[in-house]
Input
Amino acid sequence: MEVSDSLLEHLRHVAALPDLTGTRYQLESEIGRGGMGVVYRARDRQLGRRVALKILDAALAGEAQIIAGLEHPAIVPIYEAGTLPDDRVFYAMKLVTGAPLDQYVAGSPPLAERLRVIRRVGEALAFAHTRGAIHRDLKPQNVMVGEFGEVYVMDWGVDAVAGTPAFRAPDARLDQRSDIYALGALLRFALPAPAPPALCAIAGKAMKAEPSARYSDAPALLADIERFQEGLAVEAWSEPLWHRLGRFGSHNAVLLWLLAAYAGVKFMLFFLRKF
Amino acid sequence: MNKIVVGILFGVILGALDGATAWFYPEARPLLAGIMVGSSIKGMVVGLLSGWFARRVQSTTWGILVGAAVGLLFAFLVAATDTVNGRHPYLEMMMPGFVVGAIIGFLTQRLGIPGGAGKAER
Output
């Protein structure tokens, strides 16, 4: 009997699908595929809700435990973890609907909104670092901006992950400072053109080749972004005098206008008294 | 620092500086010290009221408006009791008083620690 190519392809596809026998999940469609495993959209039959189901190789089972320990508003919560009949590990997590950062940025959101997303990512990283977890593969595709503006950092890494070249630090061994590098790369990616030089400097400092020249931790980077947003000088950039004056002027515009009004009133009264 | 203290401090300083501008009027120079003291007291009262307002309402716009109004009112009261060359110097006192009040109102909003149960506006 001859088997057509399309049937063969279909059989291959079905054979590759995970066997969810014994779980409460029903497979719907594939969402994404990476070096660590495959993510499916599935239905939780017991609770009647949709979830994201990640199937990992058994060797990467530690990932679920890492993420399950990270309870943070910007980290996707894990509902359940388990083992499939073929010994592969799966975990069910919240199904996030929204746009990955690259698509989100393509929509030309305002600068303040872009920085809000980056700061949210930084907060998640800072939290994870305090728990000893490292992302290892921070990139725009791993940051989701939900339909209500919520931000989620996804695909927390394990040792086997090498990172994505444009966002990966040139460090021999990935650690927290490698995540700082990736956060800087993410900031640079999210900035509009032309970007404010202070923000470029912040991204530049975070992306220094030498790890010790980067920000010491994520909160330090976030503090510099916050300083920029408050109209203050940032740590990463020794700004020229003209720029400093301009920043002072825009930060204190109301006060300068009031002082100018006072001077104008005084000059006017001084010259009017002669007439 | 308390917003009322900030208001009093800047009220006294700006009031004194405003009074010191009388130096540019030769006919007023002999009275300069008295003018500076009086202007400082006026600034202090404006600062006190602006600071009190800033503790209750956190709004730069309202701070400026209230400071300007209070400055204008006290400048009017001072001008109404003063006479220069047989007339009340309403314009000469009320215009700078209005702007100095606005500056004090602005500073009380920007500086100092807010207190009390206030409503926030941005």
Notes: Chain A has three domains: 6-94, 98-239, 248-275.
